[in-house]
Amino acid sequence: MCRITPAYLQQASNPDNEVATTYVQDYQSNVQESLCGLLQAQQHHVLCLSSNDKQTSGHFDKEVVGQQIQSMAIFETVDFMQCAYSRSQMFEVFIERYSFLVSRVGSPRSTARETTEVLY
Fold this sequence. Notes:
The chain is 55% helix and 0% strand. The chain is an all-alpha fold.
């Protein structure tokens, strides 16, 4: 939802005298919706490699690509992922496993997400 009408015009054109939202409220609402969507989405990581230093199409330089693969530690990352070292967990599972750390940080929060944010 994108609102470009100033608040004073919204109130004047609102026949039911409902309280019009401000830009800040709309922004906060949109940010919250976006964050909720990100949490529910399946995460994918994309790495882009340059095929050469000269930015010419159709030219593949093995040395340039090899240097990029080495500097990004792509082979090591693939090995970790194949061994299942790298994975994501739901907040509840994370808290269940690492709840002993929460008492060191402070009192547990009302939701698993809030508790997880304290640990980060």
